[in-house]
Design goal:
The chain is an alpha+beta fold. Helix content is 43%, strand content 15%.
Amino acid sequence: MNTPAVENAEPAVEHATEPSRTLGVEEEFLVVAPETGASSGRGPAVLAGVADVDPQHSFHSELMTSQTEAATGVCTSSAQLSAQLRSARERMSRAAQAEGLALISSGTPPFQGEPGAISPGKHFTRIAETYRAVVTDYQACGCHVHVGVPDREQAVAVINHLRPWLPSLLAMSTNSPFHLGTDTGHDSWRAVQQSRFPGSGIPPRFRSAAEHDEHVARLIECGVLVDAAMSFWLARPSPHLPTVELRVADAATTVGEALLQAVVTRALVRTAQRELDAGREAPEFDPRLEQAAVWTAARHGLDGPGIDLVERRRVRSAELVHRMIRWATAELEETRDLATVRKLIAGLLHCGTGARRQRTAAARGDRALLGALQVTRDERGVR
């Protein structure tokens, strides 16, 4: 489905004076049969086709053999990130087509079909043994954003400031209304599936990295987390990189939507750092309202109400997104991303999030829906 305002917005020309704040993106895709969209367990064959060394990208297996992941390298500008996202999608799509398969970018599998098997390896085996039926058909795909920070102490402090904006980041990324051929009535069924895991949702407010690590260690000791890399919060200090990692967004249909999630996230992190430098600590929020805000964002996306955690009341979800952008405007201006972000958000509000566009395409039949979600090799199709 064509959504020009969402797909074709390009980042502004980068200048030498742009601050060097690092960011990167991990995109998860579903491997499917090109005729039906049914999941295929031949993800390992696709990964074998991109196994050559590439300093800009890395490609990984996911929990199910019907999933793959493409990760960008470390980027310092939105133009660099956009180019790497396009290149990674093109390379993986080429590998899928060489195997007679296709890639689609959706938070959950929209078509009926078997999920494939749990990917090989001790880590994935432990996950399957720990969570059993919770992961039997867990083909959830997300768009994960990493933003560089000096150390874990600052990562924890920054995340405290990000907590009220996590539902809005989810709302504008919703792209999983269907699950195995059924319209779930939610814009992000992936978020609902993710909520079945212990310790999901908005993270608690931690006073230090030590307190965060102690809490994670306690969950591991209690047997509800496999290891420190398996916490299910929507934002966390990365367990292996010097970054804040946000895993709130559904898989993005277009490069533009992945770029939007990344540059807004970077601006939020940088704004949080500015708040910390000014001595302003993050406010406390009602954990029950936090849970409700995530659920509401998953249910309605941008096309309905959201929950204002500060004022503790219901407001339009789109208004919360506008507030989020206003909070981060100074940083978006400094990185010269504000015009791109405004254009992409205007496209979402006009054409709809991925969830609305999926439903519009599905009304024309399964072939139309498959075409709307498929990641293709040519530059126009890569979007």
